[in-house]
Write a structure and sequence with these properties.
The chain has one domain (3-154): NADH Oxidase (3-Layer(aba) Sandwich), CATH 3.40.109. Helices cover 38% and strands 17% of the residues. It is built from six helices and four strands. α2 (24-35) packs antiparallel against α4 (95-112). The longest helix is centred in the middle third of the chain and has 18 residues, at 95-112.
């Protein structure tokens, strides 16, 4: 089977990660895959914030947990040492679609390098908080941004889960 189709069919969301940080070169390759995702009218209005600094990663996790409404001590990123926060310019009408394509490329890129990944939500709610607006400003990111998602990445702490059974009657041919 074609290498890309194989990745699309066999990639799974990972919910248990080892704590060791992947090599920076691997993370850069995954980000490169995300940056090459298609975008509406070629605007490339999506940014990626790569978080590998543990204290910031843990702070994002804690805010995400609070928004999620989970008990103290729960890690919504399942121990992943890398968080790729995908944000999109609010003035671009295709921002959610473009950001979703970036997320897909990031997850496929991680799988292709032997890493696990999972899409974690609540980035939109995070970016509505002042502390995250301040973080963007601190990073030199100007303008109005919407959080699309977090791609949590790391080495899986076990085997990849088996795929769910595919539902029937989801394709309609018009020939």
């Amino acid at each position: 089977m074609n290498e890309i189709l194989n990745a699309m069919i066999n990639r799974r969301s990972v919910r248990a990660f080892r704590p060791d940080l992947p090599e920076k070169a691997m993370i850069e390759e995954i980000i490169q895959a995300g940056l090459y995702a298609p975008s509406g009218m070629g605007r490339q209005a999506v940014n990626i914030i790569a978080v590998t600094r543990k204290d910031l990663r843990d702070r994002i996790s804690e805010v995400n947990r609070e928004i999620f409404g989970q008990k103290e001590g729960f890690d919504p990123f399942y121990g992943a040492p890398v968080i790729l926060l995908v944000i999109a310019r609010k003035d671009v009408s295709t921002r959610v679609y473009d950001g979703s394509l970036v997320m897909g490329n990031l997850m496929l890129g991680a799988y292709s390098l032997g890493l696990g990944s999972i899409w974690i939500h609540r980035a939109k709610e995070e970016l509505e908080r002042q502390e995250f607006k301040d973080l963007l400003k601190e990073l030199g990111i100007e303008g109005e941004w919407e959080g699309i998602g977090h791609c949590a990445i790391g080495y899986p702490a076990g085997e990849l889960p088996s795929p769910a059974e595919r539902k029937d009657n989801r394709v309609y041919w018009v020939e």
